[in-house]
Amino acid sequence: MTDVVFVLVPQLHLLDLAGAAQVFSTASDESVPGGPRYRLRYVADEAEVPTAQGVALRADTEWPRLGPGDLVMVPGWRSPGTAGGPRLSESLARRVREHHAEGGTVASVCSGAFALGQAGLLEGRRCTTHHDLQDELARRHPGATVVRDVLYTVDDRVVTSAGIASGIDLALHLLAVRHGPAAAARVARDMVVYARRNGHEPQASAMLRHRSHLSDAVHRVQDRIDADYAAPLRLAELAASSGLAERTLTRRFGEATGMTPLRYQSLLRLERAEHLIGQGATVESAARAVGFSDARMLRRLRAAGRAQVG
């Protein structure tokens, strides 16, 4: 039996906690034959912990006895700019630090990374957090290496993840490391999670990065492309779905997203192909799966993307 201790801070986000907790709870479900066994514990300074969503949670105020195989996790909390926001008490920070010193793994979701920093666990290590908080984390902990636009990082049993739902990805990763990818895949399927994402994948998908505009017509076209990105889509079809003439659609799409509909579709294909390759697919099979006629176009897009990053 492995203990997973969630350290609860006032104004914590429910999904930061519930996503990861659901992974370990599902893994321990008796309906999963031969599955790992986890005991979930919740500790805090006070027995009642208010959440950012208005629901109060109950927690233990006594720290349990833990071994190196157990896990301590700190969910994130509502903290605009983190300035003046909640903090771990010195007692809880010491407990988190001691668990790591004794060989245990500690993890955080979203702004929970600030708690690990408070415990002195980010110095000299790679870490991440929600994209809106990365600058502040780097400012507060100059000795840490804040890795931007990734889902989670792992460095010497210190595991940090990005915002909110990425706690599910982090927990599935920990499950895969401890019990194998098949166990993590089984839990993801049971939770109806689309796919177990790797830590290096971006926090915001292409679908989200180009959706901040206010054009309903362009959103309708993006919906059409999102649904059928692997299919050959003619501009006439997309224009019909938007109610605009082809030239007008091309102009408005460019104004809203900075690219053509074809370029947007290629970005979606590339992002999905990168995910498949990260899961072990060959470049050739990934190219076919996302709609490229052969792998040459995929290779060119990947090379162009690496060149931009470089």
Automatic annotation (TrEMBL):
TM segment ranges: none
Name of the protein this chain belongs to: Helix-turn-helix domain-containing protein
Organism: Glycomyces paridis
Any one GO molecular-function label of the UniProt entry: sequence-specific DNA binding
HTH araC/xylS-type domain sequence ranges: 219-300
Domain of life: Bacteria
Keyword Disulfide bond carried by entry: no
Keywords carried by this UniProt record: Transcription, Transcription regulation
A Pfam cross-reference name: HTH_18
